[in-house]
Amino acid sequence: MTTAQSVAEESGSVPGIQLEELRVTASVRGAAARLVLAGTADTRAAEALGEMLKKLHTRCTEAGVLEVEVDLRDLEFMNSSSFKAFVSWITAVRELDRGKQYKLTFQSDNGKHWQRRSLGALSCFAIDLITIRT
Predict the structure, then answer these.
(1) Number of C-beta neighbours around residue 111 at 10 A
(2) Would you state the pLDDT for residue 10?
(3) Cα–Cα distance measured from residue 103 to residue 93, given in angstroms and rounded to the nearest whole number
(4) I need a surface site. Which of 16, 18, 33, 128 has the fewest CB within 10 A?
(5) Is 113 helix (H, G, I), strand (E, B) or coil?
(6) Using N-to-C axis directions, what is the helix angle for 113-123 and 80-94, rounded to 10°?
(7) How many CB atoms lie under 10 A from the CB of residue 21?
(8) Euclidean distance between CA atoms 88 and 81, whole angstroms
(9) What is the pLDDT of residue 12?
(10) For the chain (length 134 residues), average pLDDT per consecutive 10?
């Protein structure tokens, strides 16, 4: 496993990721959740990111979350290993009963062309659940 250190869990937060190359925070507040990524999500971060997204998914389903805002504006790059963690998360949301599914809204930086291409492809996995904002 990577040398990820869990960020102290606060009320409503999900343990985050603090690596040299990637910082991720997540929180759940009522029917909404927020996930913020900054840095570079490469192969070294993929395992930690996948585990965090599983924990966030569990927390969201337990709390009855209706929407998760995913802020990628400060994410410089994501490789296919970390991208796969998001595909697995979206698949888990899609597999929930329709009444328990939650929406995912990705905030992206339009100046980062890889985000536009990657998020476009990602949205194809769950057109009815994913919104992309620039």
Answers:
(1) 9
(2) 38
(3) 9
(4) 128
(5) helix
(6) 30
(7) 14
(8) 11
(9) 65
(10) 36 83 95 97 95 96 97 96 95 96 96 90 90 92
Length of the chain: 134
This prediction has a pTM of 0.87
Q: Domains in the chain, ordered, with CATH?
A: 13-133 (3.30.750.24)
Helix, strand or coil, per DSSP, at residue 80: helix
Q: In what order do the strands lie in the sheet with 130-133?
A: 13-18, 22-29, 32-41, 67-78, 103-107, 130-133
Give ∠ CA 12-16-83 in degrees, rounded to 5. 120
The closest of 26, 73, 27 to 49, measured between CA atoms, is 26
Q: Tell me the two tokens of residue 44.
A: 């070294």
Start-end of H helices in 5-134: 43-63, 80-94, 113-123
Under 8 Å between Cβ of 96 and 65:
no
Distance CA 71, CA 119 (A): 12
